[in-house]
């Protein structure tokens, strides 16, 4: 079984009232912003589960405005490319999600505190080998949420849990 895709505990998740909350403090029934790709709009979505797991390596993505710490196969929305990850083969093999390759210079969709959107360029991607407890969430629709302001995929986490494909992770349900 595979480990799940995750973010560092201090990753800020955008709630549907424009506040942020650390992903480690998100609970089932919190309402987060998600992105409806078909309608090209932000929608509120209730969190239905949160999962944590220990990872031995992760990547630090440095943007001009901020950063993001995630596992190497976590998809992020990129301008003119759609969903991308640093390790696109693992994203497909582990989770069935076809994504393109994430690289320095890509521009990722970012929501700001007022709810408007911009694109922020990746300045650096650096791999780190160090043990860290990491977290991810799944909500009831759209398979996405905003982590540190950046649109990220939730990997259909709830579907992976039901199919028992996530290993020995700690799972919390609504």
Could you describe the 3D structure shown?
The chain is mainly beta and 174 residues long. It is built from 2 helices and 13 strands. The strands form 4 sheets. Strands 3, 4, 5, 9, 10 and 13 form a 6-stranded antiparallel beta sheet that branches. The longest helix is centred in the middle third of the chain and has 8 residues, at 88-95. The two termini are 24 Å apart. The mean pLDDT is 87.
The global form is globular
Largest sheet: 6 strands, antiparallel
Strand content: over 45%
How large is the radius of gyration? 14 Å
What structural keywords apply?
174 residues; mainly beta; 6-stranded antiparallel beta sheet
Write the layout of secondary structure elements.
Layout: E1 12-14, E2 20-22, E3 31-36, E4 41-63, E5 67-70, E6 76-78, E7 82-85, H1 88-95, E8 100-101, E9 107-111, E10 117-139, E11 144-147, E12 150-153, H2 157-162, E13 170-173
Parallel strand pairs: 7-8
Antiparallel strand pairs: 1-2, 3-4, 4-5, 4-10, 4-13, 6-7, 9-10, 11-12
């Amino acid at each position: 079984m595979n480990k799940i895709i995750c973010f560092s505990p201090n990753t800020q998740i955008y709630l549907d009232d424009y506040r942020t909350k650390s992903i480690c403090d998100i609970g089932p029934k919190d309402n987060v912003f998600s992105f409806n790709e078909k309608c090209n709009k932000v929608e509120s979505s209730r969190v239905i589960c949160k999962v944590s797991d220990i990872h031995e390596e992760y990547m630090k993505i440095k943007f001009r405005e901020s950063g993001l710490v995630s596992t190497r196969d976590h998809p992020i929305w990129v301008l003119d490319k759609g969903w991308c990850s640093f390790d696109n083969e693992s994203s497909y093999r582990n989770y069935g999600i076809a994504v393109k390759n994430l690289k320095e210079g890509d521009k990722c969709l970012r929501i700001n505190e007022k709810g408007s959107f911009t694109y922020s360029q990746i300045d650096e991607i650096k791999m780190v080998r160090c043990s860290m407890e990491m977290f991810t969430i799944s909500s009831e629709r759209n398979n996405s949420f905003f982590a540190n302001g950046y649109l990220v995929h939730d990997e259909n986490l709830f579907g992976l849990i039901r199919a028992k494909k996530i290993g020995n992770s700690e799972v919390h349900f609504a």
